[in-house]
């Protein structure tokens, strides 16, 4: 905290942050992935460390430098992400799922590189749904009193607005806070900036105006810190 300006309000707290996007392999060289850059998760890890927390960052396929003073655990697939997050959650005062786990994985991973067929046909890829890590840790509550935070990137659709979908997702996941972004247009991916509404299971709705991912990270930790038991 030497030159930091943040108050050490997370001193003595253990927090877990997941970041990046998982990859689901089809064969040794190909995968299904997504556009998550890891910037928001890394900003959360740096902000928590600046506020005195002991931080574990479970990082999926992120190319950013390791944040100073943070334990970084690297994973690739959703199964690996789940294993590391569930293990770290046992002793965590807060878990923030900023990662974008792939929702589906190929049912079969080929040991050998898939080759093109001579007849010009393409393979069909069968998919299975991945486990929902946020739902699992919110339901199990390995450490009572821990604050569990999810993210939701929504565009809004015929079934509801971005906020309505966010409220429904918060209830479905069972977490304490859900950070909802409007991603219509895809502008947030890889951008240093973000805007969001932080929804609480307690009814809270905190509007965070457009600003840096670091500013949003600190606003999220404010909400977490205010809900931690003494
Ligand atoms: N999440 C998770 N495990 C998954 C999928 C998502 O833990 N297999 C977490 C994400 O890290 C995020 C939150 O759940 O914090 C919401 O992710 P999102 O993709 O919006 O939720 P889904 O349940 O996958 O719903 P959707 O069908 O809208 O993608
Ligand atoms: Ca999803």
The biggest beta sheet reads: 8 strands, mixed
Based on helices, strands and strand pairing, what is the structural class?
alpha/beta
Give the strand order, joined by hyphens, for the main sheet.
5-4-1-6-9-10-11-12
Distance between the termini: 22 Å
Oligomer: single chain
Task: Provide an overview of this structure.
The mean pLDDT is 94. The protein is globular and about 65 Å long. 40% of the residues are buried. The longest helix is centred in the C-terminal third of the chain and has 13 residues, at 213-225. The strands form three sheets. It has an eight-stranded mixed beta sheet with strand order 5-4-1-6-9-10-11-12, with helices on both faces. Strands 2-3 form a two-stranded antiparallel sheet. Strands 7-8 form a two-stranded antiparallel ribbon. It is built from five helices and twelve strands. By secondary structure, it is α/β, with parallel strands linked by helices. The structure holds cytidine-5'-triphosphate and calcium ion. Cytidine-5'-triphosphate is lined by residues 78, 97, 99, 101, 103, 130, 132-134, 150-153. Cytidine-5'-triphosphate binds at residues 78, 97, 99, 101, 103, 130, 132-134, 150-153.
Notable features of this structure?
binds calcium ion; 230 residues; 8-stranded mixed sheet; two-stranded antiparallel sheet
Write the layout of secondary structure elements.
Elements: E1 14-20, E2 24-27, E3 30-32, H1 39-50, E4 54-60, E5 71-75, H2 78-89, E6 94-97, E7 104-106, E8 127-129, H3 133-140, E9 147-154, H4 162-173, E10 177-182, E11 193-200, E12 205-212, H5 213-225
Parallel strand pairs: 1-4, 1-6, 4-5, 6-9, 9-10
Antiparallel strand pairs: 2-3, 7-8, 10-11, 11-12
The structure holds cytidine-5'-triphosphate and calcium ion.
